[in-house]
Amino acid sequence: MYAATTMLATTTSPGYHGPVPAYHHGNLRPTLLAAAERSLRQHGAEQLSLRELARAVGVSHAAPRRHFPDRQALLDALAETGFARLHTQLRAALAAAGGDFGPRLHAMAAAYLRFATEDAALLELMFTRKHRPGADHLVEAAAAPFGLMHDLIVQGQAQGVLEAGDPERVGIVLFATLQGIAMLVNGNLVAPELLDGIAQTAVDQFIRGSRRR
Fold first, then answer.
1. What is this structure's pTM?
2. Residues 142 and 198 in one domain
3. Which domain holds residue 138?
């Protein structure tokens, strides 16, 4: 049983430097996930371990296993959290953009690229975990954010902005474009401050190239 008092861990170890989120009785799982994501961003997935996470947040080595039986469960939970966050951010961007297809597509593309560049390590983990055998729950989690993209393509076709056809194929072209831009930024081949302008140009060209003839 853990004490109900707030505890801020100051323990440091390889891969976990500096203060970590405060741990309160009853919220160990989100505290572990926050610490794991911080390490993922700084050091990559290979450095993640339940033992080091326990040390980082100041609990016993056995405590994390109440929430994550093994390291694979922790990685899956991180990926699921990422898909949920991406869905929330895309949905908020679409809601703020109004009802017209063009502004909605620009808003969604900008939101996705922000996520893909600011949380690049998390996004890579999300895709890696989603495609492993037996990851049906992650396939379902991914369906929420990418379903928004699919629905937006359908809207563009219904409004006559995009050419009719399989919306999934059209969506793959859009996704490949956005993912390619993110890879250029993450690989330091394109300066981050150019991201917004490139995204706008890419979406404009996508609409022109996909316009109903």
1. 0.82
2. yes
3. 72-210
